Amino acid sequence: MIRKKISAAPSVRRLPSYLNIIRELQTGGNEYVSGTVIAQELKLDPIQVRKDLALTGITGKPKKGYRLPALITAIERYLGWDTPRNAVLVGAGNLGSALMGYAAFNCHGLTIQAAFDINPHLAGTEIHGIRVFPAGSMEAQIRESGTKIAILTVSPASAQAAADALVHAGIDGIWNFTTVKLKVPEDVVVQQEDLSSGLAMLSVMLRAKTRETGKPPA
Which residues of the chain have pLDDT under 70? Predict the structure, then answer.
Protein backbone atom coordinates (compact mmCIF):
# COMPACT_ATOMS: atom_id res chain seq x y z
CA MET A 1 0.00 0.00 0.00
CA ILE A 2 1.19 3.52 -0.71
CA ARG A 3 2.02 4.85 2.77
CA LYS A 4 2.50 8.49 1.89
CA LYS A 5 -0.30 10.57 3.37
CA ILE A 6 -2.23 12.94 1.18
CA SER A 7 -1.89 16.22 3.07
CA ALA A 8 -5.08 17.57 1.49
CA ALA A 9 -7.21 14.57 2.50
CA PRO A 10 -9.75 16.55 4.61
CA SER A 11 -10.15 19.03 1.74
CA VAL A 12 -10.66 16.21 -0.75
CA ARG A 13 -13.44 14.79 1.43
CA ARG A 14 -15.18 18.18 1.47
CA LEU A 15 -15.04 18.84 -2.27
CA PRO A 16 -17.93 16.50 -3.21
CA SER A 17 -20.20 18.42 -0.81
CA TYR A 18 -19.15 21.65 -2.49
CA LEU A 19 -19.92 20.12 -5.84
CA ASN A 20 -23.44 19.17 -4.79
CA ILE A 21 -24.20 22.72 -3.69
CA ILE A 22 -22.66 24.21 -6.83
CA ARG A 23 -24.77 21.98 -9.08
CA GLU A 24 -27.93 22.94 -7.20
CA LEU A 25 -27.09 26.61 -7.69
CA GLN A 26 -26.45 26.03 -11.37
CA THR A 27 -29.81 24.28 -11.71
CA GLY A 28 -31.38 27.32 -10.07
CA GLY A 29 -30.01 29.57 -12.80
CA ASN A 30 -27.08 31.06 -10.92
CA GLU A 31 -23.90 31.92 -12.81
CA TYR A 32 -21.46 32.59 -9.95
CA VAL A 33 -20.98 31.41 -6.38
CA SER A 34 -18.79 32.77 -3.61
CA GLY A 35 -16.84 30.78 -1.07
CA THR A 36 -18.93 32.47 1.60
CA VAL A 37 -22.17 31.07 0.22
CA ILE A 38 -20.75 27.54 0.15
CA ALA A 39 -19.41 27.99 3.67
CA GLN A 40 -22.81 29.14 4.95
CA GLU A 41 -24.56 26.14 3.41
CA LEU A 42 -22.15 23.69 5.07
CA LYS A 43 -21.47 25.69 8.26
CA LEU A 44 -17.77 26.03 7.48
CA ASP A 45 -15.24 28.84 7.66
CA PRO A 46 -15.18 30.78 4.32
CA ILE A 47 -11.38 30.86 4.47
CA GLN A 48 -11.30 27.05 4.62
CA VAL A 49 -13.62 26.80 1.63
CA ARG A 50 -11.42 29.12 -0.42
CA LYS A 51 -8.32 27.12 0.55
CA ASP A 52 -10.04 23.89 -0.47
CA LEU A 53 -11.10 25.31 -3.83
CA ALA A 54 -7.59 26.67 -4.42
CA LEU A 55 -6.37 23.05 -4.60
CA THR A 56 -8.18 22.71 -7.91
CA GLY A 57 -6.21 25.59 -9.41
CA ILE A 58 -9.23 27.80 -9.99
CA THR A 59 -9.41 31.45 -8.97
CA GLY A 60 -12.52 33.50 -8.39
CA LYS A 61 -13.42 37.02 -9.49
CA PRO A 62 -13.55 39.81 -6.89
CA LYS A 63 -17.11 40.54 -5.69
CA LYS A 64 -18.47 37.79 -7.97
CA GLY A 65 -16.85 34.57 -6.87
CA TYR A 66 -16.39 31.52 -9.04
CA ARG A 67 -18.11 30.94 -12.35
CA LEU A 68 -20.15 27.76 -11.84
CA PRO A 69 -19.34 25.78 -15.02
CA ALA A 70 -15.61 26.44 -14.60
CA LEU A 71 -15.73 25.53 -10.91
CA ILE A 72 -17.55 22.26 -11.59
CA THR A 73 -14.99 21.36 -14.25
CA ALA A 74 -12.08 22.23 -11.96
CA ILE A 75 -13.37 20.14 -9.05
CA GLU A 76 -14.23 17.14 -11.23
CA ARG A 77 -10.82 17.27 -12.88
CA TYR A 78 -9.04 17.47 -9.51
CA LEU A 79 -11.04 14.52 -8.17
CA GLY A 80 -10.47 12.53 -11.34
CA TRP A 81 -14.20 12.30 -11.96
CA ASP A 82 -13.81 13.60 -15.51
CA THR A 83 -12.06 10.35 -16.50
CA PRO A 84 -14.25 7.23 -16.88
CA ARG A 85 -13.01 4.29 -14.81
CA ASN A 86 -14.25 0.71 -14.62
CA ALA A 87 -14.42 -1.31 -11.43
CA VAL A 88 -15.41 -4.74 -10.19
CA LEU A 89 -17.25 -5.51 -6.97
CA VAL A 90 -16.35 -8.51 -4.85
CA GLY A 91 -19.08 -9.67 -2.47
CA ALA A 92 -22.61 -9.23 -3.82
CA GLY A 93 -24.40 -9.49 -0.47
CA ASN A 94 -26.53 -6.78 1.14
CA LEU A 95 -23.93 -4.00 1.13
CA GLY A 96 -22.50 -4.99 -2.24
CA SER A 97 -25.97 -5.06 -3.79
CA ALA A 98 -26.72 -1.61 -2.39
CA LEU A 99 -23.52 -0.20 -3.86
CA MET A 100 -24.32 -1.73 -7.23
CA GLY A 101 -27.58 0.19 -7.16
CA TYR A 102 -25.93 3.52 -6.35
CA ALA A 103 -26.52 5.43 -9.58
CA ALA A 104 -24.33 8.39 -8.56
CA PHE A 105 -21.19 6.35 -9.23
CA ASN A 106 -21.77 6.89 -12.95
CA CYS A 107 -21.89 10.66 -12.36
CA HIS A 108 -18.44 10.39 -10.80
CA GLY A 109 -16.95 8.48 -13.72
CA LEU A 110 -17.06 5.07 -12.02
CA THR A 111 -18.79 2.11 -13.67
CA ILE A 112 -19.10 -1.26 -11.95
CA GLN A 113 -18.66 -3.67 -14.82
CA ALA A 114 -19.11 -6.94 -12.96
CA ALA A 115 -19.55 -8.48 -9.53
CA PHE A 116 -18.19 -11.70 -8.05
CA ASP A 117 -19.50 -13.84 -5.21
CA ILE A 118 -18.88 -17.26 -3.68
CA ASN A 119 -22.62 -17.90 -3.36
CA PRO A 120 -23.58 -20.28 -6.20
CA HIS A 121 -27.16 -19.00 -6.08
CA LEU A 122 -26.00 -15.49 -7.01
CA ALA A 123 -23.71 -16.55 -9.85
CA GLY A 124 -25.37 -15.95 -13.19
CA THR A 125 -27.89 -13.46 -11.82
CA GLU A 126 -28.04 -9.70 -12.34
CA ILE A 127 -28.30 -7.09 -9.59
CA HIS A 128 -29.27 -3.59 -10.73
CA GLY A 129 -28.26 -4.63 -14.23
CA ILE A 130 -24.79 -5.82 -13.19
CA ARG A 131 -23.89 -9.44 -13.85
CA VAL A 132 -22.70 -11.55 -10.91
CA PHE A 133 -20.03 -14.15 -11.71
CA PRO A 134 -18.58 -17.04 -9.67
CA ALA A 135 -15.67 -15.99 -7.46
CA GLY A 136 -13.51 -18.61 -9.15
CA SER A 137 -13.60 -16.72 -12.44
CA MET A 138 -12.57 -13.39 -10.88
CA GLU A 139 -8.84 -13.36 -11.59
CA ALA A 140 -9.18 -14.44 -15.20
CA GLN A 141 -11.91 -11.92 -15.97
CA ILE A 142 -10.06 -9.03 -14.32
CA ARG A 143 -6.91 -9.85 -16.26
CA GLU A 144 -8.85 -10.04 -19.51
CA SER A 145 -10.72 -6.77 -18.94
CA GLY A 146 -7.75 -4.85 -17.56
CA THR A 147 -9.85 -3.39 -14.75
CA LYS A 148 -7.71 -1.68 -12.09
CA ILE A 149 -10.24 -0.80 -9.34
CA ALA A 150 -12.05 -3.21 -7.02
CA ILE A 151 -14.75 -2.60 -4.40
CA LEU A 152 -14.44 -5.11 -1.58
CA THR A 153 -17.60 -5.97 0.40
CA VAL A 154 -16.95 -9.55 1.49
CA SER A 155 -17.03 -10.92 5.04
CA PRO A 156 -14.03 -10.13 7.27
CA ALA A 157 -12.97 -13.78 7.16
CA SER A 158 -12.68 -13.65 3.37
CA ALA A 159 -11.24 -10.14 3.01
CA GLN A 160 -7.50 -10.81 2.93
CA ALA A 161 -7.79 -13.80 0.59
CA ALA A 162 -9.96 -11.76 -1.76
CA ALA A 163 -7.49 -8.88 -1.65
CA ASP A 164 -4.61 -11.24 -2.45
CA ALA A 165 -6.50 -12.55 -5.46
CA LEU A 166 -7.30 -9.01 -6.64
CA VAL A 167 -3.68 -7.92 -6.39
CA HIS A 168 -2.56 -11.05 -8.23
CA ALA A 169 -5.06 -10.23 -10.99
CA GLY A 170 -3.54 -6.77 -11.47
CA ILE A 171 -5.83 -4.53 -9.40
CA ASP A 172 -4.13 -1.23 -8.45
CA GLY A 173 -6.75 0.22 -6.09
CA ILE A 174 -9.08 -1.39 -3.55
CA TRP A 175 -12.02 0.40 -1.96
CA ASN A 176 -12.28 -1.64 1.21
CA PHE A 177 -15.66 -1.75 2.97
CA THR A 178 -14.62 -4.58 5.29
CA THR A 179 -13.32 -4.10 8.82
CA VAL A 180 -10.05 -5.83 7.98
CA LYS A 181 -6.83 -3.88 7.60
CA LEU A 182 -5.56 -5.38 4.36
CA LYS A 183 -1.95 -6.31 3.76
CA VAL A 184 -1.03 -5.43 0.18
CA PRO A 185 2.11 -4.48 -1.77
CA GLU A 186 3.42 -0.91 -1.54
CA ASP A 187 2.20 -0.03 -5.03
CA VAL A 188 -1.43 -0.95 -4.35
CA VAL A 189 -3.70 1.78 -3.00
CA VAL A 190 -6.30 0.88 -0.38
CA GLN A 191 -9.06 3.24 0.74
CA GLN A 192 -10.55 2.00 4.00
CA GLU A 193 -14.23 2.91 4.34
CA ASP A 194 -15.30 2.59 7.97
CA LEU A 195 -19.09 2.93 8.18
CA SER A 196 -18.95 2.76 11.97
CA SER A 197 -17.09 6.08 12.12
CA GLY A 198 -20.09 7.88 10.62
CA LEU A 199 -22.40 6.22 13.12
CA ALA A 200 -20.02 7.18 15.93
CA MET A 201 -20.17 10.86 14.89
CA LEU A 202 -23.96 10.77 14.70
CA SER A 203 -24.20 9.17 18.15
CA VAL A 204 -21.85 11.69 19.74
CA MET A 205 -23.70 14.65 18.19
CA LEU A 206 -27.05 13.30 19.36
CA ARG A 207 -25.68 12.86 22.87
CA ALA A 208 -24.34 16.42 22.84
CA LYS A 209 -27.74 17.69 21.69
CA THR A 210 -29.41 15.78 24.50
CA ARG A 211 -27.12 17.41 27.05
CA GLU A 212 -27.88 20.89 25.63
CA THR A 213 -31.64 20.49 25.44
CA GLY A 214 -32.25 17.99 28.22
CA LYS A 215 -34.46 16.02 25.84
CA PRO A 216 -33.53 12.52 24.62
CA PRO A 217 -33.67 11.97 20.84
CA ALA A 218 -37.02 10.70 19.58
Answer: 1-7, 216-218
Q: Are 186 and 156 in contact (CB under 8 A)?
A: no
Q: In what order do the strands lie in the sheet with 189-192?
A: 126-127, 130-134, 110-117, 85-90, 149-152, 173-176, 189-192
**32-45 pLDDT, tens digit each:** 999 999 999 999 99
Query: Could you tell me if residue 113 is left (phi over 0), alpha (psi between -120 and 50 degrees) or otherwise beta?
Result: alpha
Distance CA 142, CA 127 (A): 19
Cβ atoms < 10 Å from Cβ of 56: 20
> So what's the pLDDT on residue 2?
44
Evaluated on CA atoms 2, 157, 161, 136, the torsion sign reads negative
Question: What structural domains and CATH numbers belong to the chain?
Answer: 9-79 (1.10.10.10), 85-196 (3.40.50.720)
Residues 142, 156: Cα–Cα separation, whole Å: 22
